[in-house]
Amino acid sequence: MATNIPTELRYSKTDEWVRVEGAEVVVGISDFAQHALGDIVYLELPSVGAVVQAGASFGVIESVKASSDLNAPVGGEVIAVNNELEASQEAINQDPYGAGWLIRLRPSGDEDELMDAEAYAAHCAERNH
Amino acid sequence: MHKRTPLFETHVAMGARMVEFGGWEMPVQYHGIIEEHRAVREQAGLFDISHMGRFMVRGSQAEDFLQQMLTCNVAAIPFGQASYGLLCQPDGGVVDDVFVYHLLDEFLVVVNAANRDKDWAWLNQHSSGFDVELEDRSERWAMLALQGPQAQSLLAHAPDSTTSDLAHLPFHSVALTTIFGFTALIARTGYTGEDGFELFFEAHHAADVWNGLLALGQPGSVQPCGLGARDSLRFEACLPLYGHELSPHINPYEARLGWVVKLDTGDFIGRDALVAIKAQGPARRLAGFELLARGVARSDYPVHNLNGMPVGHVTSGMPTPTLGKPLGIALVPSTLSAEGSEFDVIIREQPVRARVLKMPFYKPRYKKL
């Protein structure tokens, strides 16, 4: 199955994506990750105002099959959380780069090791075999 | 290199997501676990379970031999019927849980995929002294499961088949039939908590039978299903999964399978130990539970009593598609196993309070005549 990897985003080794929007960043999980997890049924996200560390867990995502940590690709203060997902986690499966976004951060400058789309595509391909 | 069933190429061509399971490369899902799970509860789902082991046991002492190996009363299985049974170690720990089908002058024993080699060795190792012949038919035969409330009526209209009168095939019965022109054994058995059938037939017909079953009814009447839905379906019905609810370190009484142990029908491996365990009462038991706060308990998460002492572990746990909430099964001290008892499940280092529920979570809807 072809994995959708938008070129304008950057990606973490643990399959979160980052989109820079001015002075803020938006974080979600990649198409590869949502596909690997399967139907997402539970989500635990931080509250607005929480401070997350780059590379550290900021939440939990659960499918029927597995629990998975959400790791912050960049550190910063949480300024918005996608509350719509509480009622419709399936948005993460259907639209992981759009309606399935998870949190919005004011970045602190602290960053995990991030990849561009090309490097991330290779990272996904490695795990498909 | 993982082993593959005769349907491997078919699964890949149909877009299934393949994973490793017990040494096998198997489909975990086609369109999504929840959709597949619902299809089986509401209509019908088709599973490739050719990875399971199929052993034939025959000879003048086949019945005596199996009676010695299994906890169930093999002598009481009528011709054409199947029974659930356990292979136990001398100390009562479980080697495997199996289905035994009484066929014409032979028995078919279906074992778990991950235990195929171990069980084959175990049976052979104990067969000396018996006039018995064992044959491994796992490669020669494929095995499919068509499960769900519509399974019977869909099979009734299968072309070139003799499956029109399955209403007369009782629960846990097995019969010779013709499906799409191929000879097959069909049994009213399964692992989903729904009515349904399992089919055994020559492996080289696997793709024909698979495609034929998927084409029954209207498009979409039969949903191809992977191991993900198989696990969530059996979990809701509290059917044990070897390696989780059963293991060499868990005995049948702890697993609440005392009903499968017939202590009064002659000797079998593990009987002495099980007599003693039953007399004393098992120190631990499986307990189904719900969480009283947010979270999902997963296999191997620790269980603490309310004083914070480690006392057990979760054997299976997941968000349940039919019941709509996360549930779990844990192996805990018997004192904590009664309905309403409470303990803590440690989820990511945090204790989350759990309360014991009655099992099964989902009451099976078997069709018993």
UniProtKB/TrEMBL annotation, chain A:
<dbReference type="InterPro" id="IPR033753">
    <property type="entry name" value="GCV_H/Fam206"/>
</dbReference>
<dbReference type="InterPro" id="IPR017453">
    <property type="entry name" value="GCV_H_sub"/>
</dbReference>
<dbReference type="GO" id="GO:0009249">
    <property type="term" value="P:protein lipoylation"/>
</dbReference>
<dbReference type="InterPro" id="IPR002930">
    <property type="entry name" value="GCV_H"/>
</dbReference>
<dbReference type="GO" id="GO:0005960">
    <property type="term" value="C:glycine cleavage complex"/>
</dbReference>
<dbReference type="GO" id="GO:0019464">
    <property type="term" value="P:glycine decarboxylation via glycine cleavage system"/>
</dbReference>
<comment type="function">
    <text>The glycine cleavage system catalyzes the degradation of glycine. The H protein shuttles the methylamine group of glycine from the P protein to the T protein.</text>
</comment>
<protein>
    <recommendedName>
        <fullName>Glycine cleavage system H protein</fullName>
    </recommendedName>
</protein>
<feature type="domain" description="Lipoyl-binding">
    <location>
        <begin position="24"/>
        <end position="106"/>
    </location>
</feature>
<comment type="subunit">
    <text>The glycine cleavage system is composed of four proteins: P, T, L and H.</text>
</comment>
<dbReference type="GO" id="GO:0005829">
    <property type="term" value="C:cytosol"/>
</dbReference>
<comment type="similarity">
    <text>Belongs to the GcvH family.</text>
</comment>
<feature type="modified residue" description="N6-lipoyllysine">
    <location>
        <position position="65"/>
    </location>
</feature>
<dbReference type="Pfam" id="PF01597">
    <property type="entry name" value="GCV_H"/>
</dbReference>
<dbReference type="InterPro" id="IPR003016">
    <property type="entry name" value="2-oxoA_DH_lipoyl-BS"/>
</dbReference>
<keyword id="KW-0450">Lipoyl</keyword>
<dbReference type="InterPro" id="IPR011053">
    <property type="entry name" value="Single_hybrid_motif"/>
</dbReference>
<dbReference type="InterPro" id="IPR000089">
    <property type="entry name" value="Biotin_lipoyl"/>
</dbReference>
UniProtKB/TrEMBL annotation, chain B:
<dbReference type="InterPro" id="IPR013977">
    <property type="entry name" value="GcvT_C"/>
</dbReference>
<dbReference type="GO" id="GO:0004047">
    <property type="term" value="F:aminomethyltransferase activity"/>
</dbReference>
<feature type="domain" description="Aminomethyltransferase C-terminal">
    <location>
        <begin position="284"/>
        <end position="363"/>
    </location>
</feature>
<dbReference type="InterPro" id="IPR006222">
    <property type="entry name" value="GCVT_N"/>
</dbReference>
<dbReference type="GO" id="GO:0008483">
    <property type="term" value="F:transaminase activity"/>
</dbReference>
<keyword id="KW-0808">Transferase</keyword>
<dbReference type="InterPro" id="IPR027266">
    <property type="entry name" value="TrmE/GcvT-like"/>
</dbReference>
<feature type="binding site">
    <location>
        <position position="198"/>
    </location>
    <ligand>
        <name>substrate</name>
    </ligand>
</feature>
<keyword id="KW-0032">Aminotransferase</keyword>
<dbReference type="InterPro" id="IPR028896">
    <property type="entry name" value="GcvT/YgfZ/DmdA"/>
</dbReference>
<dbReference type="GO" id="GO:0005960">
    <property type="term" value="C:glycine cleavage complex"/>
</dbReference>
<dbReference type="GO" id="GO:0005829">
    <property type="term" value="C:cytosol"/>
</dbReference>
<feature type="domain" description="GCVT N-terminal">
    <location>
        <begin position="7"/>
        <end position="264"/>
    </location>
</feature>
<comment type="subunit">
    <text>The glycine cleavage system is composed of four proteins: P, T, L and H.</text>
</comment>
<comment type="function">
    <text>The glycine cleavage system catalyzes the degradation of glycine.</text>
</comment>
<dbReference type="Pfam" id="PF01571">
    <property type="entry name" value="GCV_T"/>
</dbReference>
<dbReference type="Pfam" id="PF08669">
    <property type="entry name" value="GCV_T_C"/>
</dbReference>
<protein>
    <recommendedName>
        <fullName>Aminomethyltransferase</fullName>
        <ecNumber>2.1.2.10</ecNumber>
    </recommendedName>
</protein>
<dbReference type="GO" id="GO:0019464">
    <property type="term" value="P:glycine decarboxylation via glycine cleavage system"/>
</dbReference>
<dbReference type="InterPro" id="IPR029043">
    <property type="entry name" value="GcvT/YgfZ_C"/>
</dbReference>
<dbReference type="InterPro" id="IPR006223">
    <property type="entry name" value="GcvT"/>
</dbReference>
<dbReference type="InterPro" id="IPR022903">
    <property type="entry name" value="GcvT_bac"/>
</dbReference>
